[in-house]
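Entry 12.
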Amino acid sequence: MATPEPQFFDVVRIGDSDETRMLGLNGAEGVVIGVSEDEVTGEKWFVVGVGDLPAAMFPSSVLTPTGRSVPRESIYSGESVRVSPEGKILGYSSNASEPSEDEPQSEPL
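Predicted 3D structure (tokens):
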């Protein structure tokens, strides 16, 4: 029976590979927070967050679902920022505070 594909917010165990050993993450558990598909091979790669470390991408072949998941709110606060096409901050969600007058605004890229 094939291993089920991880879903967003699933807890996964990171398997052993050259990359996971180099990162020191083989055997670690993390949470799936993104997914991408290789346009050539069709292989899915998953963005996995492990604690306070920067998120990393792994192919499905090195991830094993644990059968557990976390609520979305444990990863994302729900706060958001509206930005114009020119890069100017237009506003914040009700969960975030408004910037003060002396707070720097983002400049367009």
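Annotation: The longest helix spans residues 18-23. Confidence is low (pLDDT under 50) at residues 96-109.
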